[in-house]
Amino acid sequence: xxxxxxxxxxxxxxxxxxxxxxxxxVSAVLRSxxxxxxxxVAAFEEEFSEELVDGAFAVAVNSGTSALHLALLASGxxxxxxxxxxxxxxxxxxxxxxxxxxxxxxxDIEEDFFCMDPAAAEAAIxxxxxxxxxxxxxxxAAAMGEFEAIADKHGxxxxxxxxxxxxxxLHGRKVGTFGLAAxxxxxxxxxxxxxxxxxxxxxxxxVARRARILRNQGMAKQYANxxxxxxxxxxxxxxxxxxxxxxxxxxxxxQRQDNAKxxxxxxxGVIVPPVADGAVHVYHQYTIRVxxxxxxxxxxxxxxxxxxxxxxxxxxxxxxxxxxxxAPGLDLPVTEQVAxxxxxxxxxxxxxxxxxERIVTAVNETAKAGA
Length: 371
Description:
The chain is of the alpha/beta class. The chain has two domains: 20-246, 3-Layer(aba) Sandwich (Aspartate Aminotransferase, domain 2); 249-370, Aspartate Aminotransferase, domain 1 (Alpha-Beta Complex). It has helices at residues 20-32, 39-52, 64-74, 92-98, 118-123, 144-154, 205-215, 236-246, 249-266, 294-305, 333-341, 353-370; strands spanning 57-61, 82-86, 103-107, 129-132, 157-161, 169-170, 173-174, 181-185, 198-202, 279-280, 286-289, 342-345.
């Protein structure tokens, strides 16, 4: 393994893959003159449904946050309701609840897989609880069997934030098929992209119908507005990109898994991410834990080895200025601990074997120096 990083190119923590196929697809849409929500969107929805969520309804929108927001609205979540969410996630999870007028209720995560703790979620249920919304963080499925049981027991809805988990599964069942509705992100750094966009998936025909209406100013028929809606439509330009990427995501997922396997087998001195029994991890992020000196560790990887990394999410949601009003005095010890320790290493499909070996050298030498 090389130990002369000063002459080597920077290894980015993430790298969107946009090729000539995507360029050609966009050009074809532009030449067609049909650039707003049209046949490409309809085709993308159908293909996404078949490829990633076992035939569930799919509704394309303009972002992952819009997917979360409209999934909640279409399911009747609103003022007076509470939705239980993890605090260790991107703020869009809780934002989507708050923007409906409902209250996000933050709970702790379980330590190994960084996903919502089912026991903590059940303990937070009140008479106002409308739903639980776990996040399949970093591409690892949350404990959905336990969450299904909790939701059924208490007569509440179950949603999935699947923004980072395209193709992830648990005991042979795809994420995006467990809850009343789920939301995927198609942002450029996700495992597949449409340039920008999101997808709502649901087994409910009525939720799908309402989501389609809500994304289009509340209209199923022009000027016959049924609901107070939004303009959250996806364009045919974005859908064309998504359709191309959908045909590649399985191969990219396998490469991410192979890259993660190499890292887990060779990293030393850090806590590598475990995988739950029956889970298929798709490694949107490969997230290690460094018990001491995380920020210095990140700086050393960058400055001495030219290896990029990411720190997600250093400030838990319940302590963000925008969201702390929902959680005064809340103590979430596991969330607080992992927020100080997590580093996401490059795992994307563009990595070469030499890149992987340099990442291993960088982490192992940095860990050894700090021991």
